[in-house]
Amino acid sequence: MKKLSLYIMPVQLFLAAFWFKNGFLDKVVGISLGILHPKTAYYGLTWGGWHDHIVTNWDNSRIGHLFFTPLFEFLFPIIIILQCLPVLFILMSIINKEFLVGRARPWLMRSAITSFLVTTIMLFSQTLSNARDAEYLLNLFSISMILIVYLTVVDKMIEKQHNN
Hints:
By secondary structure, this protein is an all-alpha fold. It is 76% helix and 0% strand.
């Protein structure tokens, strides 16, 4: 038990759970099920469902309608990939045993930074479009920033203890 880094594991769990659900399950699995079983899949998670939801949000403003809506077919796959990256980085973090005391945590930091970047991109488009999703994205933006700072502080704390 002393070998587990209890400072780090909650960060790994949060990032993995959040992006696994919102990136992989909602987007990849939902869209795949919509392709494989179009009559029984939940429409909201299919390509068409996501298109309707996102484009409706973007169309709340002229800026979103003009700049984002026409590019949905190009932008949405990029967002899907970006939303799956934090989970992949967390998997690499777990494989490299970054949850143990005394380990470097480059994959965990990459996951936190990617979470911050994808949230920033989504928040930017939703804010310009005056969409309601901007509220929860602002919270996730703040949490992602805090995670990056937290990981930096924990690493410095551990490095200081190691040097003493």
